[in-house]
Design a protein that fits this description.
The complex is a heterodimer of chains A (113) and B (117). Chain A is an all-beta fold. In chain A, 0% of the residues lie in helices and 54% in strands. In chain A, strands 2, 4, 5, 9, 10 and 11 form a six-stranded mixed beta sheet that branches. A five-stranded antiparallel beta sheet of chain A has the order 1-3-8-7-6, with no helix packed on it. In chain B, 0% of the residues lie in helices and 55% in strands. Classes of the chains: A mainly beta (113), B mainly beta (117). At the A-B interface, strand 4 and strand 5 of A face strand 10 of B.
């Protein structure tokens, strides 16, 4: 089955700096890659997703890039703010009868004021 | 509006109790999901309903019993739970495009924090 790995497991940045979180996946048939942000005591919130027919997607300060050849995708957050502090999960999925999201282990991002 | 609501927010129950978790969405989504999340871990899929029919059961113990009474509502009935079942239980929904779930965009609710004593 699919295996998604997330690096690093924790990340601390200064407010205003950029943060990059990378995920690798194992199944070359995976074609959908969402990113979720989870704040303490809350459910995961979708922040951006990308499908395999595009290489990059941007939404204001957040962007995701996908490298299908290398089987990795990355979340880029620019001009980080303290409210970006949270756990971030990447996930991957194939298309198939019982396809499901496979999540990475999550990364705790801390933005220092 | 991409809102999934869950009640209750917190639940404490004994091992002999019977309780239910409730999830609701009014986005017209036709797929609904239950996930279990332990502390500092990613969500783990438990069940998937599609058009009110159970489509995926990830080999979940029978002490967890899902129910989908209509397209907006999803329940999880709990009976004879163990302390290790204590976790955050998350509901999600998705539009259900085509035949497959994995590539649907899923929207999560805030979860029910369950403690089993």
């Amino acid at each position: 089955g699919e295996n998604v790995e997330q690096h690093p497991s924790t990340l601390s940045v200064q407010e205003g700096d950029s943060a990059v979180i990378k995920c690798t996946y194992s199944d070359s048939a995976s074609n959908y890659f969402p990113w979720y942000k989870q704040e303490l005591g809350k459910g995961p919130q979708l922040i951006i997703d990308i499908r395999s027919n595009v290489g990059e997607k941007k939404d204001q300060r957040i962007a995701v890039t996908l490298n299908k050849t290398a089987k990795h995708f990355s979340l880029h957050i620019t001009e980080t703010q303290p409210e970006d502090s949270a756990v971030y999960f990447c996930a991957a999925s194939t298309t198939g009868a019982n396809s499901k999201l496979t999540f990475g282990k999550g990364i705790t991002l801390s933005v220092r004021p | 509006d991409t809102e999934v609501t869950q009640t209750p927010k917190h639940l404490v129950m004994g091992m002999t109790n019977k309780k239910s978790l409730k999830c609701e969405q009014h986005m017209g989504h036709r797929a609904m999901y239950w996930y279990k999340q332990k502390a500092k871990k990613p969500p783990e899929l438990m069940f998937v309903y599609s058009y009110e029919k159970l489509s995926i059961n990830e080999s979940v113990p029978s002490r967890f019993s899902p129910e989908c009474p209509n397209s907006s509502l999803l329940n999880l009935h709990l009976h004879a739970l163990q302390p290790e079942d204590s976790a955050l239980y998350l509901c999600a929904s998705s539009r259900k495009k085509g035949d497959f779930f994995g590539t649907d965009t899923q929207y999560f609710g805030p979860g029910t924090r369950l403690t089993v004593l």
